[in-house]
Amino acid sequence: MTRTRHAWPQPTDWLWLGGATLVFVCLDVGLFAAAGPTTGFLGPYAMLVLSLVCDVSLLLLWRFPNGVPSLLVAAALAMLASDLFSPGLLVPIDQPTLMTVPTVTPIVLAQLVCRVDRRRLLWFAGILALLATRPWNPAWNTTPFGLLSTALPVAVSLYLEARRQLLTSLRDRAERAEREQHLLAEQARAAERRRLASEMHDVVTHRLSLMVLHAGALGVTSADPGVKTAAEDIRREGAQALDELRDLVGVLRNGAGIEPPVADPPLPGDVADLVAESVAVGIATELSVAGERDSVSPTVARTAYRVVQEALTNIRKHAPGCSAAVSLRYHSGGLDVAVANTRATRPPDPALAGSGSGAGLSGLRQRVELVGGTFEAGAAVGGGFRVGAILPAYVPTAEGAAR
Fold first, then answer.
1. 91/83 Cα distance (integer angstroms)
2. What percent of the chain shows pLDDT beyond 90?
3. Among 138, 145, 64, 160, which residue's Cα sits nearest to residue 103?
4. Per-residue pLDDT for 223 more than 90?
């Protein structure tokens, strides 16, 4: 099996191809100078011309992987015919080397390992080895040198290619095993999430639904105003718990590659309470609310609450003496939250500023992205800071969309 190759060398390949061609050209010119001119009717430079043509053909090996070794076979046959029938025609009578094939043959055969299929490679290598060793007239110098210049380059290149393919196969197998292991772990986590979602849906949702129904019935049948009020409170809180549970079950069932959120405790109040707390500690804070809160699900409202809570906490820690503005804009597509503060008027308390874990904003980003929103935080114009989030109306899961 051969690798897919480009028809022409890549820029890095041209460097070594040109260098190898230049080396063999210089080698053949030196051999010609040492051996002297040929004496046949083709002229004194017949050997040099034949050698240089074979050397330059190395540059075309990428484009003509069958033509270049065929040229070498033809050149080797011509050299053999010159030796047998017309000594001195293409090869000097007194040869300076033991080569009976073109000098560029070893490197061409070595590169053919990656250029042609194994059958053609063996045919070219076998023919050139036969012409190089000349077994019909064995000699202690011709046969071993012919094998070294033909069979050895092919054997070494085949070994290196087989080793490369083996290492590539082992690397691919290891990567595939790692991906399969990761996939199995993901499947196990997804199965566990689905099991938990089913348990919550079948058990907790059923009990909460019964509680809401009983509370509603109690509010209708009881004549005591206090009981009616308590029953209505129970019914309302139970209905809200069902909404939140529905969103949580949706995240557990459909959250791909993310851990399900841990259920938060009930909110101590709404965003107005957070603003009031900020004003009480000396931070001038304004609240702007537009739209209806009922347009978003309880899980999204809780996420917005946590964004405002963390932002105001950071303002108290790191920007004492500033003023802040909180903006909530409810719309049909969801909820836009923004908390911005001006530049601090005095340095922060070192003990207070260093009391956090440093993961507040990253935790907010995770919480916002978990419900399908986007989060941003950064410096504001004038030296202050701004935290913003764009939240959907409901958690983007099948259970959330069913609302």
1. 7
2. 15
3. 145
4. no
Local structure of 374: helix, strand or coil: strand
Q: Burial level of 279, CB count in 10 A (0-12/13-18/19+)? A: middle
Give tens-digit pLDDT for 235-293.
Answer: 777 777 777 777 677 666 665 444 444 444 444 357 888 888 888 878 899 999 988 88
Q: Is the dihedral of CA 64, 68, 73, 75 positive or negative?
A: positive
Asked if residues 112 and 5 have their Cβ atoms less than 8 Å apart, the reply is no
Q: For the domain 271-401, what is the CATH code?
A: 3.30.565.10
Residue tagged 């490679």 (tokens): 121
Q: How far apart are CA 338 and CA 17, in angstroms?
A: 63
State the amino acid at position 293 in one-letter form. Answer: R
Mean pLDDT, residues 220-229: 82
In order, the DSSP letters of 277-338 are: HHHHTT-EEEEEEES-GGGS-HHHHHHHHHHHHHHHHHHHHH-TT-EEEEEEEEETTEEEEE
The answer to whether residues 328 and 290 touch, using CB atoms and an 8 Å cutoff, is yes
Pairing type for strands 323-331 and 385-392 reads unpaired
How far is residue 102 CA from its own chain's centroid? 48
b/e sequence 44-77, b meaning 16+ C-beta within 10 Å: eebbbebbbebbebbbebbeebeebbebbbebbe
Domain boundaries, the chain: 11-138, 179-254, 271-401
What is the chain's alpha carbon radius of gyration, rounded to the nearest angstrom?
Answer: 42
| Confidence (pLDDT) at 252 | 67
User: 231 CB contacts (<8 Å, ≥6 apart)?
Assistant: 215, 216, 218, 219, 222
Which one, of 106, 159, 157, lies nearest residue 132 by Cα? Answer: 106
Residue with tokens 């002229």: 43
